[in-house]
Amino acid sequence: ARISVLASGGGSNLQALIDHFAGPAANAGVLTFVASERESAGALDRARSARIATGVVDEPNDSDAILSLLDAAKTDVLVLAGYLKLVPAEVVRAFRGRILNVHPALLPSFGGPGMYGMRIHQAVLDHGATLTGVTVHFVDEHFDRGPIIAQWPVPVLPGDDATVLAARVLRTEHRLLPLCVAAVASGAIVLGEDGRVHGHLDI
Ligand code: GRF
């Protein structure tokens, strides 16, 4: 399967995907295209270093432009790896069951519009939660609300601040996301017509 990635930031999740599909999961998929709405995004530098084609999404709300970029790359699976924009509904429809997102909390808690980056981890701390985690889910028309593919717990430790907690959660993202992408790319996990996730992650 040909995998495209949208990323807004430094791209450490993208790097985890690059490493995974260059190694153990090479037969499950190949990363073929990386785009960002920010031409200065570190994720694009990582893609270039890995000799992966890159693009810039000039207008994140322009579904035709996004679809033509993804079609040019012959995209089978689309991964949002730290992508901060809402994917237009037409793109979600065109790629139903083939768009994944990683969120650094246990959805439906601590998710939705406005809940991104350090705000998430600060909210977890402010609520006194003792457990947080990572969610990988199929993307629907709303932020962070698609059917969940997998989750993994991350402990909140005494003395944690948002920076320390974010780093601990990020390490788990780097492990969970590639496994979920490989499972969807290989067909081991599918989004059924019933809107439920079928199959499971072998971890
Ligand atoms: C991570 O915190 C991730 O949880 C969120 O956006 C950030 C992306 O980080 N989705 P990176 O660009 O993958 O390093």
Automatic annotation (TrEMBL):
Active-site residues from the entry: H103 (proton donor)
Molecular-function annotations in GO: phosphoribosylglycinamide formyltransferase activity
Catalysis: reaction(s): N(1)-(5-phospho-beta-D-ribosyl)glycinamide + (6R)-10-formyltetrahydrofolate = N(2)-formyl-N(1)-(5-phospho-beta-D-ribosyl)glycinamide + (6S)-5,6,7,8-tetrahydrofolate + H(+)
Residues under site feature: Raises pKa of active site His: D144
Residue ranges annotated for the Formyl transferase N-terminal domain, each copy included: 2-179
Enzyme class of the recorded protein, top EC level: transferase
Superkingdom of this protein's organism: Bacteria
EC number: 2.1.2.2
Binding site for N(1)-(5-phospho-beta-D-ribosyl)glycinamide: G11, S12, N13
GO cellular component labels: cytoplasm
Chain sites annotated for binding (6R)-10-formyltetrahydrofolate: L84, K85, L86, V87, N101
Coiled-coil segments: none
GO biological-process terms attached to the record: 'de novo' IMP biosynthetic process
Pathway in which this enzyme or protein is active: Purine metabolism; IMP biosynthesis via de novo pathway; N(2)-formyl-N(1)-(5-phospho-D-ribosyl)glycinamide from N(1)-(5-phospho-D-ribosyl)glycinamide (10-formyl THF route): step 1/1
UniProtKB keywords: Purine biosynthesis, Transferase
Function: Catalyzes the transfer of a formyl group from 10-formyltetrahydrofolate to 5-phospho-ribosyl-glycinamide (GAR), producing 5-phospho-ribosyl-N-formylglycinamide (FGAR) and tetrahydrofolate.
Family: Belongs to the GART family.
Protein name: Phosphoribosylglycinamide formyltransferase
Gene that encodes the chain: purN
Residues of the full protein shown: 5 to 207 of 241
